[in-house]
Every structure is written in structure tokens, then in C-alpha cells.
Automatic annotation (TrEMBL):
The keyword Oxidoreductase applies. The lineage of its organism: Eukaryota, Fungi, Dikarya, Ascomycota, Pezizomycotina. InterPro entries: NAD(P)-bd_dom_sf, Sc_DH/Rdtase_CS, SDR_fam, Sec_Metab_Biosynth_SDR. The keyword NADP applies. This is Gluconate 5-dehydrogenase. Belongs to the short-chain dehydrogenases/reductases (SDR) family. It comes from Exophiala sideris. Keywords: NADP, Oxidoreductase. Pfam families: adh_short_C2.
């Protein structure tokens, strides 16, 4: 056996994000805040979080900056912005560029949903969901691309990780709280990720999508309760658990680390196999 086959290079640090700079949209709560916490605890030196509400962003960075297990010099910075507006995305990118000359990781995660039966699904809510969940994801990436490519190489690529949803792979919620626009938007953003993976890959930016099932965040909790609650969800899920914050943070840290640098255009379900079980007769 060749020595090179057993002595993997610097394997102890393969999941480390030591010194990396990340931007997290929808970072004030839910997945965004959980992932920002994971980024800092995995070694990031700077995290920018954004969402519309300035107060919520400030509270989030206070909690992040108080984390005992982050690097002592690591910092979370809040830049409140409405990601559904192009001028706000320009401002976000400009304000990020004031305090860093590059970005290594973009977690494009801000998203919204709307539930209504077929007959009552209104055009303005449909457009709002598509705008934030698809168009704004594209333009967030476009506006931050100059910073993302600054230090990127094909061997050490920058990362874009997009929060899609398992509803973009299978069906969304139907009936009284149907989420037609939401599931269509998540299917669209998965396709966007595949196109971006091919277009941005050569310049050292790799793009992947995560597809969570239902998790207990502000967005999903009431919808799950309407469908019977998290205990019913747990019973329907093949691994008999409900997703926890660590399950998302762990996957996004992995997708930001050296361990995943050969994944590009991947679409990763994080649902305990729930979608597979739903498809059975
Ligand atoms: N939870 C689930 O079960 C689940 C499952 C699959 C996919 N997802 C996806 O996961 C992502 C995060 O959702 P979550 O569950 O963590 O929900 P959440 O707790 O409601 O968080 C949503 C975040 O997005 C921000 N946001 C909303 N509209 C925004 C806008 N126009 N501009 C900037 N920020 C905005 C919110 O802050 P402000 O309101 O202050 O702006 C908040 O920080 C979404 O893309 C969602 O579709 C969630």
C-alpha cells in the first residue's frame, strides 16, 4: 500500500472553517441564525447576517458574539436589508465590502411562504414568494460574486449554499393551506443552483442546495401544527425523529468546508427520509 493512500493531507482540519468570512441572509432567526452559530463555532472569523428587521439582527449578533466557543477575535456583524429589493442588495454588498475585501461563503437562505387554497391564491402573494425565494437568491449571488471570487481558486473554491426545500423535489402542502407558489419557487431555485454550479464553477465558486423537510422554526411550526403536529411528523419519518438546528448547521458547515469541495450542483435532502416514505403506497 502506498503511504500517500493512508496519510491523507491535513485530514484533522478537513471540516474546519478557520478564518473564513461568511454572509448569511435570513440570519436573524431560524436556519440562518443556527448556521451563523455553526459557522462561528467551526472557526469563521467574520459573519455578516442580514434580514429586514434591524432590532432582530442586533439581538442575533449579540447572541452570536457572546458564543463562548467561537474564535476570540471572531465577529458577527449585522447589516439589515430587504433581500427582495435590488437596491437593498446593492447596499448590502457595498456595506459588506466596507469591512472585508473578500467573502468565502454565502448562505442564501432568506425565504418566505404563503398558504391559501387554490381559489384564493392571490397574484401579489404569489409574486412576493417567487421574488424572495428565486429572484432575490439570484441577485444576492450576483451582487456578492465580486467578493466571492476574490480569493477563490478551483482547488479552494468559495461556496454558495442555497436553502431550497424538500417541497421543491416532491409536492408541497395542498388543501386549505396550499403552498403552490412556495413549492414552485423551491423547485425553481433548485434548477437555478444547477445552472449556477456550471456557470460559476470555472471561476472558483461552487453552488449547492439544501432541501430541508419540516423543522420547528417560526416559518414552519404553525403549518406542521395544522397537519397534526411534530409528533405525527416524527412517526411519518423513517428515522423517527424531527430535525434539529444542528442537522442544518452541520450540513451547511460541511458544504462550506474542504470536505465538500468536489460537490457542485448537489441537491441534498435533510428530512430523515420523510419524502421517500410519503411516496410509498
Ligand atoms: N423551517 C422549515 O421547515 C423549512 C423547510 C424547508 C425550507 N425552509 C427554508 O429555510 C429558509 C429559512 O427559513 P426558516 O425556517 O429559518 O424561517 P424563519 O425562522 O421564518 O426565518 C426567515 C428569515 O428570513 C428573513 N427574511 C424574510 N423575508 C426577508 C427579506 N425580504 N429580506 C431579508 N430577509 C428576510 C427573516 O427575517 P425578517 O422577517 O426580519 O426579514 C428571517 O431571518 C427559507 O428559505 C425557507 O423557505 C424552511
Amino acid at each position: 500500500m502506498a503511504a500517500a493512500d493512508v496519510h491523507l493531507m491535513d485530514f484533522q482540519n478537513i471540516f474546519s472553517l478557520e478564518g473564513k468570512v461568511a454572509v448569511v441572509t435570513g440570519g436573524s432567526r431560524g436556519f440562518g441564525l443556527q448556521v451563523a452559530s455553526g459557522f462561528l463555532q467551526a472557526g469563521c472569523s467574520k459573519i455578516y447576517i442580514t434580514s429586514r428587521e434591524a432590532k432582530a439582527c442586533e439581538e442575533a449578533i449579540d447572541a452570536l458574539n457572546a458564543l463562548p466557543s467561537k474564535r476570540p477575535d471572531a465577529k458577527a456583524i449585522a447589516i439589515p436589508a430587504d433581500c427582495s429589493t435590488i437596491s437593498e442588495l446593492d447596499r448590502l454588498a457595498a456595506e459588506v465590502a466596507e469591512t472585508t475585501d473578500h467573502v468565502d461563503i454565502l448562505f442564501a437562505n432568506a425565504g418566505a411562504t404563503w398558504g391559501a387554497p387554490f381559489e384564493k391564491t392571490a397574484p401579489d402573494t404569489f409574486s412576493k414568494v417567487m421574488d424572495l425565494n428565486v429572484k432575490s437568491v439570484f441577485y444576492t449571488i450576483q451582487k456578492l460574486e465580486p467578493l466571492l471570487k476574490k480569493n477563490a481558486t478551483n482547488d479552494d473554491p468559495s461556496r454558495v449554499i442555497v436553502t431550497a426545500s424538500i417541497t421543491g423535489v416532491g409536492l408541497g402542502t395542498l388543501g386549505q393551506n396550499a403552498t403552490f407558489a412556495y413549492s414552485a419557487s423551491k423547485a425553481a431555485v433548485i434548477h437555478l443552483v444547477k445552472n449556477l454550479a456550471v456557470d460559476l464553477g470555472p471561476r472558483g465558486i461552487i453552488t449547492n442546495a439544501i432541501c430541508p423537510g419540516f423543522f420547528p422554526t417560526k416559518m414552519a411550526s404553525s403549518l406542521v401544527e395544522m397537519q397534526g403536529g411534530f409528533e405525527v411528523l416524527r412517526q411519518e419519518t423513517p428515522n423517527r425523529r424531527v430535525g434539529q438546528p444542528e442537522d442544518i448547521a452541520g450540513m451547511v458547515v460541511f458544504l462550506s468546508s474542504r470536505a465538500s469541495r468536489h460537490l457542485n450542483g448537489a441537491v441534498i435532502a435533510i428530512d430523515g427520509g420523510h419524502i421517500l416514505n410519503k411516496g410509498k403506497l
